[in-house]
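2024-03-11 09:14:02 DEBUG pipeline.ingest accepted 1 chain
2024-03-11 09:14:02 DEBUG pipeline.ingest length=119
2024-03-11 09:14:03 DEBUG pipeline.predict start
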Amino acid sequence: QVQLVESGGGLVQPGGSLRLSCTHSGSRFSVYAMGWYRQAPGKQRELVAQITMNSGTTTLADSVKDRFTISRDNAGTTVYLQMNNLNSDDTAIYYCNAEGVGVPPVDYWGPGTQVTVSS
């Protein structure tokens, strides 16, 4: 069982920045990819960014690719989401996700962290 610990959410003004972190409790070989999803009120959960832990290949949603960056640490247990030039459309609960290496792969989820962009 992999547990995820998130940090870094909060309130920020439009145009500001935040960095989210997520650490998983498994070994570096137990997780294939990690990423961030978000869910705004009344909307479906959507993928924001994902990174594979071995190769570092990244995927970013079109709505954030010019503003957000996802990265991982060398230990292969923590991912970071750097969010710049935030706007009100980025307000949501952000959930960390880890995809296990098993077959079929198992998804693990963090409890979520609130990001609010408001003046």
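2024-03-11 09:14:41 DEBUG pipeline.report The mean pLDDT is 95.
2024-03-11 09:14:41 DEBUG pipeline.predict end
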